[in-house]
Amino acid sequence: MAARAVVLCSGGVDSTTTMAIAREMGFEVYALTFDYGQRHRWEIEAARRAAAALGAVRHQIARIDLTAAGGFGGSALVGEGEVPRRRTADEIASGIPATYVPARNLIFLAFATAWAEIVGANDVFIGVTAVDYSGYPDCRSEFIEAFERAARLATRTGVEGGAALRIQTPVIGMSKSAIIRKGLELGVDFSLTHSCYAPDERGRACGECDACRLRLRGFREAGVEDTVEYVGRDRTR
Question: pTM of the entire structure?
Fold first, then answer.
């Protein structure tokens, strides 16, 4: 029987390619998506599509409220302040942006670790990348390594001497264009994905936020067309 893996699935380029890599490695995929009150909720539907297309055994949507109304907040992604637009590559790579959700990957990985114990998975995949860096401290390898050590101390499997939990980050050292090429090699249909932080009411990407700019540059450098719909903008720019 194939080994199981929990794969964090946001519906974007990086997490969808990560899911395809986990499948290529022979894992049964248990996809995990979070509905945390994010303003770009189209990503949840994209995650559903990606998990179905890549044959996830199960797709779990965990609902947690990180909005200000839920007592948290602190990010433009949960409706506090404006999503940055039209920033240059240097601006995107400098400092922690307003779209940073406090400790988001720490929270997500804690949930994923718990679910991995429940479903009998020793591997958790997360599509963090530190190359086309967007300023998020919880996307760095130092954080992932520290979390893995802590998770092994905090779980029954780790204490009882079972197989050690592994946090797998297969795209962490890849550029966006390399991730796109890898996804295409594995049959990923990127038209099913969603990256935009500020889509319109129809779910069309704005083309101006940091996520759109990184995505567009990645497709351009990969030499392929981005087939998702943008609001009145040339997808190749």
Answer: 0.93
